[in-house]
């Protein structure tokens, strides 16, 4: 199959990127990050999550962040909502999209959201129905689709089983997530193909952590299947609080550089994206993880 000519990138940096940061990041800095991402041309931004502040303190200012962002027409703002309590808190903040997140492994489901896979689907069902009632699209994220920090191997059958469960409750979009970055291209294609059995190409995306340095290869493997939507995190921020040692998502800068080289349009201005990454890295007092960002910043510094 010919590679797609356009790719949509969802920057999950403000949520996935920052959720695991130990040092507090102010609401104003989070809103500024969103502003810089949209200036760089991002059209989809995952802003925050409506989860328990005891479990994930960094996202406790979820509603304040949603109120603080300066929305631009044409940009979609999404938030995570694991249950009705989260959805009810998120609804007045007017997200364009919500994300429910399940896992392909029982052990991760328990650690991450404190319930079994079956229970998680029961919890999501009313959330999906209420979101649709409110005219809000529902994205599903499927954690540990390529491996689990507790269970180890995860099979394509296990992935497909949960994809089907999510589909059965009306989840509109399926994000296949490599939470701990252990996937390699052929395994990623096998998992994606299971999602594509139940969702059209336009409603399947990849979410790759770069822990083992495989994320760009895995994205390329998805492009070969025609998949054209990916999550990425500016500066390579992040890591999941329930996946020890897992590093951030693939850096948005690195994905854009690769796609530019392939002649695939993203609508994103790489230089401005590097500015956004440099900004949040400055707030966090460290260099961006993105190798492309480091190279461009070094070149700029002369
Ligand atoms: C899912 C829950 C909330 C269940 O939490 P629980 O403890 O099982 O829920 P509960 O219903 O028993 O409630 C316990 C307490 O939590 C409160 N509570 C209950 N729900 C909410 C809510 N929505 N917002 C705020 N508070 C909430 C509730 O009010 C109560 O408060 P208390 O009476 O003790 O004061 C909890 O386990 C949790 O917050 N977990 C954190 C999950 C999380 O944020 N994980 C990271 C994001 S997922 C991810 O990063 C993976 C992804 C998507 O990027 C893809 C990938 O790479 O894999």
Automatic annotation (TrEMBL):
Keywords: Lyase, Metal-binding. Pathway: Metabolic intermediate metabolism; (S)-3-hydroxy-3-methylglutaryl-CoA degradation; acetoacetate from (S)-3-hydroxy-3-methylglutaryl-CoA: step 1/1. It catalyses: (3S)-3-hydroxy-3-methylglutaryl-CoA = acetoacetate + acetyl-CoA. Gene3D superfamilies: Aldolase class I. The keyword Transferase does not apply. GO terms for molecular function: hydroxymethylglutaryl-CoA lyase activity; metal ion binding. Residues 7-274 form the Pyruvate carboxyltransferase domain. CDD domains: DRE_TIM_HMGL (cd07938). GO terms for biological process: ketone body biosynthetic process; L-leucine catabolic process. It comes from the Bacteria. Its EC number is 4.1.3.4. Transmembrane segments: none annotated. Coiled coil: none annotated. Pfam families: HMGL-like. Belongs to the HMG-CoA lyase family. This is hydroxymethylglutaryl-CoA lyase. The lineage of its organism: Bacteria, Pseudomonadati, Pseudomonadota, Betaproteobacteria, Burkholderiales.
């Amino acid at each position: 199959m010919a590679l797609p000519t356009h790719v949509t990138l969802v920057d999950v940096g403000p949520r996935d990127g920052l959720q695991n940061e130990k040092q507090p990041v102010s609401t104003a800095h989070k809103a500024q990050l969103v502003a810089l991402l949209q200036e760089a041309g991002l059209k989809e931004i995952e802003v925050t999550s409506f989860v328990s502040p005891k479990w994930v303190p960094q996202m406790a200012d979820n509603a304040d962040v949603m109120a603080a962002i300066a929305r631009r027409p044409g940009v979609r703002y999404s938030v995570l909502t694991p249950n009705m309590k989260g959805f009810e808190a998120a609804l007045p903040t007017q997200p364009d999209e919500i994300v429910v997140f399940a896992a392909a492994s029982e052990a991760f489901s328990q650690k991450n959201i404190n319930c079994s896979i079956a229970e998680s689907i029961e919890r999501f069902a009313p959330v999906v129905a209420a979101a649709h009632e409110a005219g809000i699209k529902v994205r599903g994220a499927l954690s540990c689709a390529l491996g689990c920090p507790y269970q180890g191997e995860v099979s394509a059958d296990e992935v497909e089983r949960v994809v089907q469960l999510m589909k059965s409750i009306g989840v509109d979009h399926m994000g296949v997530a490599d939470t701990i970055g252990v996937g390699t291209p052929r395994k990623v294609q096998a998992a994606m193909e299971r999602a594509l059995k139940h969702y059209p190409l336009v409603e399947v995306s990849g979410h790759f952590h770069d822990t083992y340095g495989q994320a760009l290869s895995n994205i390329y493997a998805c492009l070969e299947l025609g998949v054209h939507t990916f999550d990425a995190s500016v500066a390579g921020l992040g890591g999941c609080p329930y996946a020890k040692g897992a590093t951030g998502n693939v850096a948005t800068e690195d994905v854009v550089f690769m796609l530019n080289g392939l002649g695939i349009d993203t609508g994103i201005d790489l230089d401005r994206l590097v500015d956004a990454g440099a900004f949040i890295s400055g707030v966090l007092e460290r260099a961006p993880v993105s190798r492309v960002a480091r190279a461009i910043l070094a070149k700029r510094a002369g």
